[in-house]
Amino acid sequence: MPEQPTEVEPARRSESAKRGRKSDPVSDKAGPCHQAWLHPLRGRISASGLTLDQLVSLTGYSKTRISTLLRGAEYYPGWEITYSMVHALDLPVWPLRRLWTAGAREADKDQAWIEERIHAVRPLEPEVPPLAHQAFTEAMREPYTAYTRALLHSDRRAHWVVAEAFDILWLGWDEAVASPDVRRHAWRLLRSRVTLRAHRHRDGHPDLRPAAFTTVTQSLISDLTARFAEISALAGFFDAVGRLPQDQFDVVVLRYLCGLDAQAVHTVLGLSAARTHAIDHHARGALESIHHPDDDPGVINPT
């Protein structure tokens, strides 16, 4: 996975926003969970064209506190000021509160602090995602979780990261619907959240070597020495998978590590069937130079 983690681009700024001062960048001290809600919040402000003075008027908080919140700097913000921004921007509250809570835990805030901040704000009204969002997430939950599990090597973390991606998608659902393809938009979002957490080599490529311990082939070898030799060979093979170009990597992981059929893969990725087939063909060609197809490792099975 050679490309670096990226966030889905925020909505295009209105003309009034373009005339204002350019926003300060997000602090590098803000962790992935903190950035998960901070980027959509900043994107909505950019799209709305609201000035800092207008945000002060709408929220009742000072310029300094709002500016600090938007930079993700100095300290993790309480739910009170965060909620005031969410309310002013007319964003869905429940997904952002879940993201805020995860960010608080990431910032080492204890449960008592989190609950105290939440209880300082009036109880939230029931809120459900758009029906189209619900249908989309139900359709994609299983393949998204399988892909995430393959990279993070943890079922619990996989479910959590997918839930995070779906909450971010809810926050920007209007933008997703306006994109050329909702599936492609959502896949890039999911991939960016997984990439932030995946184990990586120093050169930036993902480390898939732990997958060598989960193949069927090695599990059937009774001799311990032979099994470790097989695992060692497979580790090198999976390391090569991690160095494939991004789309090739995604196709190989979904089709051969996660076991999706060709139709499901192109649907999940938001790519045409023809393009997905071509990507698959090139990926297998690259891998066959490393691993002969007659020596099937229990994962890659070219057809």
Structure overview:
α2 (32-48) runs antiparallel to α6, α8 (131-152) packs antiparallel against α9 (155-171) and α9 crosses α11. The protein starts with 14 loop residues before the first helix and ends in a 15-residue tail after the last helix. The chain has 303 residues and is mostly helical. The chain is 63% helix and 0% strand. Mean pLDDT is 82; it is low at 1-20 and 293-303. It is elongated and about 60 Å long. It contains 16 helices and no strands.
> What percent of residues adopt helix (DSSP H or I)?
55-70%
Strand fraction: under 5%
Silhouette: elongated
Largest sheet: none
In total, the number of strands is: 0
Mean pLDDT across all amino acids? 82
> Would you identify the regions where 5 or more consecutive residues have pLDDT less than 50?
1-20, 293-303
SSE pattern, N- to C-terminal: HHHHHHHHHHHHHHHH
Q: Note the total helix count.
A: 16
SS class: mainly alpha
Q: How far is the first residue's CA from the last residue's CA?
A: 24 Å
| Rg (C-alpha, Å) | 22 Å
Helix and strand arrangement:
Layout: H1 15-19, H2 32-48, H3 52-59, H4 63-71, H5 79-89, H6 93-106, H7 111-119, H8 131-152, H9 155-171, H10 173-178, H11 182-197, H12 216-219, H13 224-241, H14 246-257, H15 262-269, H16 273-288
Helix pairs in contact: 2-6, 5-6, 6-9, 8-9, 8-11, 8-14, 9-11, 14-15, 14-16, 15-16
List keywords for this structure.
single chain; 303 residues; mainly alpha; 16 helices
Q: Could you give a quick summary of the protein structure above?
A:
With 303 residues, this protein is mainly α. The protein contains 16 helices and no strands.
